[in-house]
Design a protein that fits this description.
The chain has one helix at about 1-105. With about 100 residues, it is mostly helical.
């Protein structure tokens, strides 16, 4: 009967070991889920960072283009102001010449 008793004790130990092993598997699974969640969170963060960097590059390029456009418009405005000034002087000179000719006639 002693071999039967030790066999029974062995089965109990196997059941305990099996239950413990199952518990370890659950904990391990939870850790894997945490790792998966951590990895997923990191991947999402990486994607967001890439998108933000692309948006920043786009905005910087847009700003550069707008600055160039603004500079071109500013130069055009300055040129028009010079033309207006030249035309005003020409008009004044023409008016003086016409006035002088009328006095001579």
């Amino acid at each position: 009967g002693s071999s039967k008793g030790s066999k029974g004790g062995g089965e109990g130990a196997n059941q305990n070991h099996s239950a413990f092993s199952g518990l370890m598997d659950i904990e391990s699974g939870e850790r894997n889920e945490e790792k998966d969640l951590t990895q997923l969170t990191k991947e999402q963060s990486d994607v967001v960072i890439v998108m933000l960097r692309e948006q920043l590059k786009y905005e910087r390029d847009k700003n550069r283009d707008l600055k160039k456009s603004l500079e071109a418009k500013s130069n055009q405005t300055e040129s028009l102001e010079k033309q207006i000034h030249t035309m005003e002087k020409h008009s004044e000179l023409t008016t003086k010449i016409i006035h002088k000719q009328k006095l001579e006639i």
